[in-house]
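Thread title: Can someone regenerate the structure for this chain?

I was given the following input by a collaborator and told the matching structure tokens would be attached. They weren't. Posting the sequence so someone can regenerate them.
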Amino acid sequence: MLTESIAMRAVRALITAAALTLAFTAGAQTAPADSLTRALATFWGTSLRPVNFSADEKAAFMNGVYAALSDTSSVSSAYSQGVNLGLNFASGLNEMESLGLKVDRQAFAQAILSVLKGENIGFTSKSAGEFIDRQIAPLTGARDKAAFTPESQAAFVAQAAGKEGAVTTASGLVLQVITEGEGEFPSDNDRVELEYIGRLSDGSIFDETEQPVNFDLVRLVPGFSEGLKLMRPGGEYRIVFPAALGYGERGVGDVIPPGAALDFTVKLLSVDRGSATQVISKESVNNNL
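Best answer:
Regenerated them for you:
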């Protein structure tokens, strides 16, 4: 899979950067002969050659290389390692952006800083890798869009409706109570805190929260908003709804196929009454779940 090749390329790039940095800064040994020096320069230089640089950019590049090789103080060494790893991170981000995944680089740099300090920013290494794979996989054509026919999606919703305890509303949404909550149902004026997992009919996860998120009900796709209004705080529910209540025939890029029914497992943690940032007509909502 392309997801594996991207991950492997990223790992190899970081290992290569670390190895090169150590080779540049370690002064314990001297090359036994000029041949080794020239061989290393050829081997590493051809792989790192900045073929797309302008003359000025090549000069700046060489100044950086020379500075890294000439100054072996601990501070300069650490800085050089940071530059090398930063460039590899940037290369990885460029590749992800070519797939359509935009990453805020300043926010990424701040997040890296937090991780290096040992702070928890919402992911474990395992869950982060799984999340990245889920984001990239749909963009590589791994999903078979032909499987999402009107007939298959209607059958999927009907199957959910046939589950014990499931209720189907007039709009075609299916609600199943996993654990009933307590209190009043949310309304359009409210802001909700929740956790959820969003799946397609083939069982693949297209979205999942790693920590609680907050939404104004009026700003969600119709099916998600309707489903939340049937939930009580503290409860867990499953809602399944046809594409007409979701993203219709337009879908969402390669993440949600056109005509796809959506299947959510939702934990409604709390309701903030009357705190929606802006109550607007449903006709003008820019659905953004």
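The first helix runs from residue 2 to 25.
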